[in-house]
Amino acid sequence: MKIIGILTMWGCEVWATSAIEHALHHCDEVLCVVNAHADNLKPFEDMTLEIVQSFGNKVKIVPFDLAYHHYGVKSRILNTCLTYSSNHEVGNWVMVLDVDEYYSDEYMTGIRNIMKMEANFNQIVVTSKCFFINMQHYYRSEHFRLFKITSKDDCFIPMQFWATKDTGLPCKLEGDIHHYSLLLNPLMKIAQWKTEYPGKAQAHKVKWIEKIYRHYDLNNEEYWINENFKLFGRRVPLMDTDKSAFDEGGKLFKYEGEHIPIITKSGLDKISDFRKFYPGPWEEE
């Protein structure tokens, strides 16, 4: 049983080394696409590709030049990577990785134990701590991230769903990975949201990051929760997330534990406010 790790990257030189090291640590094979996904993300090009190339033949860089909406491109990237994989065989697993998601050794042991079980599980759902502003405050979420190859015809369809004829069931593993999505460049996130779906307005997401996240004060959460309610009708600090992702008052949880060694080594866990970390219009605030 092998794990095929697929990693898509763009404009993330700060995270790139950690992401590749993490993928190599947990996967039997790592395939990487460095691609803008959409034309309006091209201005965020940085040293990401050069960093990936520095790992040599440890990582297989997959060519992919199509630029379109994230909705239509991500599944094509994943399927293209499978055609380049040396381990695309029935019984192996595909692990969809991101530069902002990290698994501890203990969590990966749990995943491998599920893979070995006789029960017919063909997908694994991971639970996660989604960090907010820094690496101490978070909310909860869960995502499908691992997929069993039961036929060479299995493939990804928008948005990263696994299309298979297998009748197996998904399995959810509690315990939490660390998800740093909101700690990536917020200006690039705005650009991505604007091209996430064809013909579907994403103005509410852009409005949220400009009106709430940009100004959110961790020392005055109640005020910003109320502001979020005025704009989006939810007494939490996000525009479209269920209250169960937060504490009883809709506030963020506080994390006082350790981050995995790869992140600690990077020094990223020491940053107190990622909104001011990236160059751009926000850095002056």
Beta-strand share of residues: 15-25%
Fourth-tier CATH superfamily name of the largest domain = Spore Coat Polysaccharide Biosynthesis Protein SpsA, Chain A
What string gives the helices and strands in order? EHEHEHEEHEEEEEHHHEH
Rounded to the nearest angstrom, the distance between the terminal CA atoms is 50 Å
Q: How does the overall form come out from the CA principal axes? A: globular
Largest sheet: 9 strands, mixed
How many discrete domains? 2
Number of beta-strand segments? 11
Determine the fraction of residues in helical runs and give it as a percent range. Answer: 25-40%
The first-level CATH class of the largest domain is given as Alpha Beta
Number of helices: 8
CATH topology of the largest domain: Spore Coat Polysaccharide Biosynthesis Protein SpsA, Chain A
Structure classification: alpha/beta
Overall mean pLDDT:
92
Which secondary structure elements does this structure contain, and how are they paired or packed?
Blueprint: E1 3-9, H1 13-26, E2 29-34, H2 48-53, E3 60-61, H3 70-84, E4 93-97, E5 101-102, H4 105-116, E6 121-131, E7 137-148, E8 155-157, E9 161-163, E10 169-179, H5 186-194, H6 203-213, H7 221-232, E11 253-254, H8 261-266
Parallel strand pairs: 1-2, 1-4, 2-3, 6-10
Antiparallel strand pairs: 4-7, 5-10, 6-7, 7-11, 8-9
Helix pairs in contact: 5-6
